[in-house]
What we know:
GMP Synthetase, Chain A, domain 3; 14 helices
Amino acid sequence: MLSLFDxxxxxxxxxxxxxxxxxxxxxxxxxxxxxxxxxxPTGAERWSYARLIAAVRGxxxxxxxxxxxxxxxxxxxxxxxVDFPIAYLGAIAAGIVPVPTSSQLTEPEVAKIIAHLSPKxxxxxxxxxxxxxxxxxxxxxxxxxxHSLPPADFDMGDPERLAYIVYTSGTSGTPRAVGHAHxxxxxxQMMMQGWYGLQPSDRLLHAGAFxxxxxxxxxxxxxxxxxxxALIPAAGTDPAQLALLMKRNDVxxxxxxxxxYRQILKYPLPVLPKLRHGLAAxxxxxxxxxxxxREATGTEIFEAYGMSECSTFISSAPGRPNAAGTLGxxxxxxxxxxxxxxxxxxxxxxxxxxxxxxxxxxxxxxxxGAPEATAEKFAGDWFLSGDRGVMDGDFQITxxxxxxxxxxxxxxxxxxxxxxxxxxxxxxxTEIAVTDIAVKSDVRVIAAFYTGPVALDEEALKxxxxxxxxxxxxxxxxxxxxxxxxxxNGKLLRQRLKDIAPF
Length: 503
């Protein structure tokens, strides 16, 4: 038998269709129900579905009145506030294409995005980095006033048309603009039971910030699609307070990156009688964390694997737990395989590249402005994840690591080439190379190895890196070496850097 999962196609997306209309449809039937609560130990800011929908559709009106048209690109430079999902859905409701970006990006990084996408306008939150530009730029005093405008009609159309763009690090070192169709939200229904076990009665607390795509999807869009309640910790919440927030707010499902669970488990946990289970994604969940959570709460963590180009598509779920040491199985409705170098599925039990069929409704349209890079990610009909694994007879997949040098930094995939390019030319540095290093059994950090006449002050190097890279891309350690490991042809042997790390 082959390493191939194909148990029937998922239901096709209806047409005409609008992503935002789909997300808000269930909530429109329960207008007084709480859609969102921004929680903290002293209380919560609550948004009913009626208030949320009015703000989204009012924002759509404001964007259209500002002169934007369906199909125009809108760059979002917003902080960890409710403005983020409202602006995102408001743009999509109007047929405008939002580009949600991390508030951690520096001005040089944002300038590259502007040059690449040529957005028509920018939404700019207080204190968020953005270069000087002649583009129309709207601040909180403008886009928050849009919430109360009359509602715009949803821009209904072809579900295959471009809905939004997110950025992911490319293996070439150039961040890629991933274009997704409106149908992407329709495909996320495969995650409702294939990972979440999500019900309208659930109260899902996601530990991430509003402006992280993991939070945007799992923490907000999906609960709202189901008509459930989404809870987000207030900005600056200490991980030590998360368990208390779960208890006080009757949380039934908790979601976060594995590192968040690790932080929570450092503190005594109260009894959580309403909690049904946890969700984890972004990086491999260590067994020590899974076991610690089960012992502390009596509940399971269900893990998912995915990527910016297709969200999650392999997972464990209530009623379908993962076998020990595996990621889980493909979600029902997916078409997944482990393939060899020719694009053919490998036999069960053999190592291959985890791949998604090009007809999966959740798969990206492509990398915007980079058709060659898009084509390189396909082998025949299969989109290549870049990760290797093994599938067993129950379709459970064991993760074996990357096929390339991509790093994982707190749930974000980061290209070492992007970091090296940004740090090129540091004063006193001749050559520099980076990789991620395991500092504990379940903790990895980015480390930079450099050559130069003398060892440099590490704090000065970190300070300079902070002006060039978002925080999650910045090396946490700098190691002065006599030379970088290379093969006889001069190619950098990046994996050898791990062998010379002093920690």
